[in-house]
Amino acid sequence: MTPLIAVLPGDGIGPEVTAEAVRCLAAVGHRFRYDFRLQEAPFGGAAIDACGEPLPAATLALCQRADAVLMGAIGGPRWSNVPATQRPEQGLLALRRALGVYANLRPVKPHSAAMESSPLKPEYLRDVDIVVVRELTGGIYFGEKHRTENSASDLCSYTAAEIERVTRVAARIAGSRRKHIVSVDKENVLATSKLWREVVTRVVRAEFPDVRLEHMLVDTAAMALVQRPRIFDVLLTENMFGDILTDEASTLAGSMGLVPSASLGDGTRGLYEPIHGSAPDIAGQGTANPFAAILSAALLLRYSLGREREAAAIEQAVGNAMTRGQVTRDLAKPGTAALTTRAAGDAVLAELER
Question: pLDDT tens digit string along 77-109?
Fold first, then answer.
């Protein structure tokens, strides 16, 4: 059966960069004679405007029958006055929960052409190759919330089962790489982190004895990411810590516009999106970097459709375009011309043609 890919363009620059990812998917499918179907649906703020809610029933139904979901960023100040329970971000949390995608993967591997765009010196970035595995459906973002005029609380909770399953994802990835996991927590303060450390240790020792496990407090990990990023292979952490650390790690790549992500569950269906936001300040200007969205499409091919050759072709094409200096303004060197979003997509398509 021909695979079905749900496409949720989202808000702000989401439709612009997602369009380039779709073009690259179509091109690589043509090159390798591999067929799939693409079906678009509203999501986030665009869905609020069109349907009155961020995750319409029809959009959710499409995602649930699709083999994979390719998504653009959502949200923006335009929907800031929407009730909290109906904001675009709530649609994203609901979609993750409905699809059961509990492990978020964010690879960070600086390209030589982007090292000068990072605030870190190039000598700190050479040989950096990290995969962050973030637990995605538990923790403080999903805990019970209370608010009064003078106080507020957010409950952070985890079960052993939730920690076990994301640990197995991280350990399998580490087993195919350098066999090293750094598990991040705040075990010296938080009860959830004490459980996290105990469960991660038990699972890795019992089921993945060839993987070396190291524990690190989150504040130490935050410092190490900028001081000694080469020490990391697979970085495993809970939801909120992972949200923060992955944005920090994106600076190693030189731009958020270069970092893709994959959100996976127990099956092959996944949710794929660039880690950057909707950037409403530059929406419609044609200056957004589409590479993270295109690289997210490569992860889709690899993890959900099992097409490693096609995924590698897209990744190589993006790398080759960057080597040739064909980049958008976030990566362009002073005095050099920057490509538009569409032209950057054209550059990747040209590399695929080669």
Answer: 999 888 878 899 999 989 999 999 999 999 999
pTM for this one? Answer: 0.92
In this chain, the answer to whether the domains covering 1-105+259-354 and 119-253 adopt an identical fold is: yes
Residue 28 neighbours by CB under 8 Å, 6+ apart: 34, 301, 310, 313, 314, 352
User: Domain limits of the chain?
Assistant: 1-105+259-354, 119-253
Residues 6+ apart with CB under 8 A from 43: 8, 9, 10, 54, 55, 59, 71, 74, 91, 95
Return the CATH superfamily for domain 119-253.
Answer: Isopropylmalate Dehydrogenase (3.40.718.10)
Q: Which residues are catalytic?
A: 141, 186, 219, 243, 247
CATH topology of domain 1-105+259-354: Isopropylmalate Dehydrogenase (3.40.718)
Reported as a single tens digit per residue, the pLDDT across 53-72 is 999 999 999 999 999 999 99
